Automatic annotation (TrEMBL), chains A, B:
It comes from the Bacteria. Residues 175-240 form the HTH luxR-type domain. GO terms for biological process: regulation of DNA-templated transcription. This is LuxR family transcriptional regulator. InterPro entries: Sig_transdc_resp-reg_C-effctor, TF_LuxR_autoind-bd_dom, TF_LuxR_autoind-bd_dom_sf, Tscrpt_reg_LuxR_C, WH-like_DNA-bd_sf. The lineage of its organism: Bacteria, Pseudomonadati, Pseudomonadota, Alphaproteobacteria, Rhodospirillales. Keywords: DNA-binding, Transcription, Transcription regulation. PANTHER family: DNA-BINDING TRANSCRIPTIONAL ACTIVATOR DEVR_DOSR. GO terms for molecular function: DNA binding.
Amino acid sequence: MNEHVVDDFITALQGATTVEGARDLFTKTLQQLEVGHYAYLGLRFRGSGPRGRPFFITTYPQPWVEHYDGNNYLQIDPVMLEAPSRSTPMHWGTREHRKTVTPRQKKFLNEAAEMGLCQGSAIPIHAAGGEFGLVSVAIDATPRQFTALMRAHQHQLHLLSLYYHAHVAENFISNESPKVSVTSRERECLLWSALGKSSWDISEILNISEATVNFHMQNAMRKLEVYSRPHAIVKAVMMGIINP
Amino acid sequence: MNEHVVDDFITALQGATTVEGARDLFTKTLQQLEVGHYAYLGLRFRGSGPRGRPFFITTYPQPWVEHYDGNNYLQIDPVMLEAPSRSTPMHWGTREHRKTVTPRQKKFLNEAAEMGLCQGSAIPIHAAGGEFGLVSVAIDATPRQFTALMRAHQHQLHLLSLYYHAHVAENFISNESPKVSVTSRERECLLWSALGKSSWDISEILNISEATVNFHMQNAMRKLEVYSRPHAIVKAVMMGIINP
DNA sequence: CGGCAACCTATCAGTTCTGCTAGCACCCTA
DNA sequence: TAGGGTGCTAGCAGAACTGATAGGTTGCCG
């Protein structure tokens, strides 16, 4: 029945030139898979720099969203805490999952269940450049029905989420890095510094004077528009200039 | 026919307790999808530290592997150069792909084709903790056959690759981080330092003395077993202690 | 060939960080 | 309630880094 859901989605996504268009397409496609509510959270987009605004879309009930925000549940929500460190989807709210959470988190899950968010699947999305997104779908059904639904659609949900995130990141997030061009010497100095070497250490490694190392670091910092080594290195890593 | 290939693979993977067992399972499963040759490259595993050994498995023809290594083709191979910055699979060696490569790369692709590696699909795998893996499958067939095969199995290849990498990373790579426990103050200092703040800046932000900031940074460095701020911050980011 | 630009090399004064030491507040437990 | 452990606060000497300045090398182009 849903043989070509994913392919159709990918094709249609090419024509989605606005955030709203892509969102509606994603929502509609998930409805085809009998998903009641979902939340998409796009974090750490490439080029958006540190602490860039998250990209947030949800069809969760408004009262729940407000309750969630009001109680600072981001710090408690077991999905938000566990999913980022996973590479594959996880189920939440199930009998099995509840065994692994703290009492406070259990209370949180109970509150969610009262709003119809009984259980669901959370799909972590790790993309190029350290990007991270999260799709959490909620299924208001019996455990038995949930299991059957997941068996049928888990992989499709997974793929849809991956392609949706990739499309959002590529088209709707300003990810233009002002193409910093560091020289090879500068890159070497950044890398060794990131690995814990001091200027003197690096001067020995590269067979140049310590003062020269400092000069290269300085130029690298100027190009990266920062004023300390730690910041330069973090930025260089974020921009993919060095891979420690 | 191949309805449950992915689910069967995931189930069987649970029982694969050795590298060889998982490899053979992956190979066998890909053969079911009519994939002639594949290469799996696991890079940047979490916890394996900077410059960890890559994890490499391939069924490519031995002569090609040697030719590849001998000519340092890692620096030329358009797949190796492009895939890491992509979030979704790409096709290589196709008429369309050849339009986007340099003359040297075209020569490279021609040499590959002579060995039966005419075209294929490359699946980038971004996982938790900045892990990266790459699965490249080669299909020795006409462009028409290739298109049909991809239409039928692309998504399955994608999912198989994701789960295979996750399993390898979790079970066969020593990813035990000695559970460094930094305090909240230490984490705050690390984070602000990563964002370019000096000790004095941070002391103003946190309303404590500069000496105290230095003390916290020092404890963080001791716990992380490093001897400079740049290194501490890089390690903290790698270990997921801070998210700049 | 001369001029130019980009990069590497080097030096120095002033600022910041590293390593060490020590007191105080809090929580837990005996 | 006393003791031990943990974490936060703070000061100081010596080492490392920041920022500005300047000469030397290489390769490109008119």
